[in-house]
Amino acid sequence: MTAVHRPLSDWVVRIGPPSSGPNLINDGDERADARHLPLFAEGWVRRSVTAGPGHTPVLALHSPVSSLTYVELDDYGAPLSLEQSGTELINRIETSWPNPDLGPADLAAVATLSRQIRYLLLHRLSQEGSPAPGVYHSLPWGPVAELASAVVRMLDEAQPSPLSEEALDLGHWVTPAAVGVTGPLEQLYEGLADPDPVLTARGGTALCSGLNSADPARFPAPVRGILADVVRRLASVNPFLRHAATLAADRLTGFASTGLVTTLDSDLPKAAAGTDDRTAIRRLGGSGPFSVRAEVTASGRLKITVQLSVEATTERNRLLDLYGCVFAPVTVSAGDLSRRYWVALEARRRWMSGTLDVPAEHGRFDVGAQEAVIGVWGLSGVSPDELLVSLTGADRAGLQVWRAAAERVPTGHPLHRAVRRHDGQRGTS
Predict the structure, then answer these.
(1) What are phi and psi for residue 48, nearest 5 degrees?
(2) How many Cβ atoms sit within 10 Å of the Cβ of residue 349?
(3) In whole angstroms, what is the distance from residue 283 CA to residue 259 CA?
């Protein structure tokens, strides 16, 4: 169903012929996604028609067989305005769907379309095709760069220039290129503007993690540059974010990075007769502020030790108060399966550290620790079942951190429920 003309929007409305019944959104089923309706499986062509009191050209689909015509709608149920030339452009792109050959002239033409149509076109293309990273540069990035520039000035404790309405509400317009970037950037701005230190920490944490999972090549060069400036500032003002922010800045600016991912194999070489103390050890982060030691044992266990170098200072105490407690996300992936663990970090004099001991995956698997450390607030969307696995693998010091964190949240919070279940199963120790 990808090599046909189908709706870009999830809402359409029929405009003809008159004998075909009432004109309702999605023929009366507004909850349906028009892009996946069997009605549009084949036989449709692009057409520009006029609609509304002003007879504005709008994007539509027409069936030569049934004579039915459907107009595509925006998020508010209004027809998507598009001149005839724009409809012809989309028609050419869809003719070679899902891998259209978009040259510079085509991309320049796409960039002149409304942000709504650009979003819909690139959203569908990202789901059904494999577009080159540069295709995403035609999305409306200007407001993102504008807001990021304001955040840089605020982190420098300078007054930003007044922002446009588009910069104050980035919406979902560039999410075909990356998710987890614009929302956290808005959150970071709001935290700095209020000011709200917890919101600032949450926004900065989510932004670093989002950028580390995004493809930087999908961002235009000016946007990459200003976002790199944002995370560099975050690294300088929040030591808990230093490693993730530095990694994000390196990725955005094209610098080679050692990364925080390694591969282990639970199938260890055979041991000498009479011994079975085999292990495989990998270290991530080197001599940087954030390091991870991953060890596979002959008994099939994976032991992870995380250390974050942050001296015991007034600033660290302030951050600990904002974070409640600190947890380092670690991801273990084998094939298409991935599991996330959280290592509770105990505050020591010159660093914060924690360990986790869980069953190792069978065969080869990856261990990654590229995400920023989080506070108690970062666990609100995690299920108690997921948290319980990390609780079970914690040592005595780690359990103390988990229990201290549980005291800071309401009884209905997933963290509180997970700790209660853990202690009820094993007895508090």
Answers:
(1) -100, 125
(2) 6
(3) 11
Identify which of 319, 309, 153, 182 has the alpha carbon closest to the alpha carbon of residue 243: 309
Question: What single-letter DSSP state applies at residue 129?
Answer: S
Q: What is the pLDDT of residue 20?
A: 55
pLDDT-derived band at 3 (thresholds 50, 70, 90) equals very low
Measured CA distances, 328 to 22, 341, 354, 355 (Å): 56, 8, 9, 10
Residues 6+ apart with CB under 8 A from 365: 263, 264, 265, 266, 332, 333, 334
Q: Is the pTM of this model over 0.85?
A: yes
Please provide residue 296's backbone torsions phi and psi, each rounded to the nearest 5 degrees: -105, 130
Please identify which residue in the block is written with the tokens 């000498």. 272
Q: Which two tokens stand for residue 143?
A: 């407001």
For the sheet with 364-368, list strands across it.
Answer: 261-265, 364-368, 326-334, 337-347, 352-359, 301-308, 290-297, 279-284
Distance CA 183, CA 206 (A): 9
CB 418 within 8 A of CB 391: yes
Q: Using only C-alpha atoms, what is the Rg of the chain?
A: 26
Q: Distance between CA 271 and CA 294 in Å, rounded?
A: 20
Name the phi and psi angles at 254, rounded to 5: 80, 10
The pLDDT mean for the chain works out to 92
**The pLDDT of residue 54:** 81
Give the Cβ contact number of residue 100 at 10 Å.
Answer: 16
Q: Where are the alpha helices (DSSP H) in 137-220?
A: 142-155, 165-168, 182-193, 197-213
Distance CA 337, CA 410 (A): 32
Element (H, E) at 257: none
pLDDT tier for residue 19 given thresholds of 50, 70 and 90: low
Token digits for 155? 């982190």
d(CA 282, CA 13): 58
Q: Looking at the chain, how many residues does it have?
A: 429
Structural element, H or E, at residue 128: helix 115-128
On whether the CB atoms of residues 149 and 160 are closer than 8 A, the answer is yes
Helical ranges in 254-343 per DSSP H: 314-323
Q: What are the φ and ψ backbone dihedral angles of 293, each rounded to 5 degrees?
A: -115, 120
Which residue, 367, 349, 119, is CA-closest to 259?
A: 367
Q: 242-253 and 197-213 are packed helices; what angle lies between their axes, rounded to 10 degrees?
A: 40
- Residue pair 71/58 in contact by the 8 Å Cβ criterion: yes
The residue type found at 198 is V
Give the DSSP per-residue string, 66-110: T--EEEEB-TTS-B-B--HHHHHHHHHHHHTTTS----HHHHHHH
| Residue 376, pLDDT score | 97
